[in-house]
Specification:
With 355 residues, this protein is α+β, with helices and mostly antiparallel strands. The protein folds into 2 domains: 166 residues, 2-Layer Sandwich (Beta-Lactamase), CATH 3.30.450.40; 161 residues, Beta-Lactamase (2-Layer Sandwich), CATH 3.30.450. It has 12 helices and 11 strands. It has a 6-stranded antiparallel β-sheet, with helices on both faces. It has a 5-stranded antiparallel β-sheet with strand order 2-1-5-4-3, sandwiched between helices. Helix 2 packs antiparallel against helix 3 and helix 7 packs parallel to helix 12. The longest helix is centred in the last third of the chain and has 47 residues.
Length: 355
Amino acid sequence: MSEQASTRDSAQYLRVLIDAAHALSLALEDKDVINVILEHAKQALNARAALVRLLSPDGTELLLGGALGLSESYLKKGIVRLAESEVDQRALNGEQVVIPDVTTYPGFQYPEEAAREGLRGMIVVPLMVRERAMGVLRVYVDDTSQLSPADILLVDALADLSALTLEKVRLMQSLCAIGKALNSSLELEEMLHQLLEAVVQEMALKAASIRLLDEEGKRLRLVAAHGLSERYLSKGEVLVEKSPVDKQVLQTGEAVVLYDVTTEPGFQYPEEARAEGIRSVLVVPLTLKDRTLGVMRVYSARPRHFTEVGINFLSSVAHMVALAIEKAQLYAALRAKYEDLKVDLTELYKFLALG
């Protein structure tokens, strides 16, 4: 343990966490949360720089969330691909990664650019929420040998605090965006399309769809989709008896998750899903009082363990969707009656004119 590290006592570490927690409680946007984690991590370790990267919806890239102490030229050096960044792979699997020299480490994607930036030592920890990694926090230091285990644990704790706050902030923003979509139009198709677009964006998904039961209760008719190709949408009818996952949702009224639709039973079109790049699916019922109207599905491009928070969130959205569908259908029925009434009045006026 270094002299610098040994001079820190537990009270100093607690003070950093308390200050960070207070700042995070005031955060209302993603950028606010990320700024808090960067500032506290950099300051606590007297680091050269700090960086947050967030996992892309398809799970193949780490997108820039925010940075402190790094030049624009370094930040624009290129795409960070997960397959080419072994250090980030390790962190996303829950590991605290310490690299003494990133310029010589074979698992670092951009060693030459790091050398030009003057970077050397690095700590990488995951932004983890309920066993789901949403990104990584990197902290760059001059000498990793000067760090104590408590220093690394502090960075990990800051990342956990920030990840939880980021999830709550996103849920709040999601509800606002979805509420706006639900009130955007009384035209059912337009309203549902905007809603699905908001759900996909806010939950970092590949796609989403809504299917309603036909009058006989045997088929699930597609009424809206976002992020799915025409080829996939035209693959064939979704029959309740041939789609065990939908049948279970409709019968029980509870959400069902398929972690990998390409290998698990229950999905009607597994080969088509594989070709479309779909791996995980969450299905929730569209329920109105004691009546189930259909199902809402969301699709992930990578195997994903949907958390209880995510399932409850989508179930709440589905309930609002069911109410919105009822409202739109009532509006359509009233408009049809109004059009019929106009026709009847026109015919009456013609009759009176003839008289």
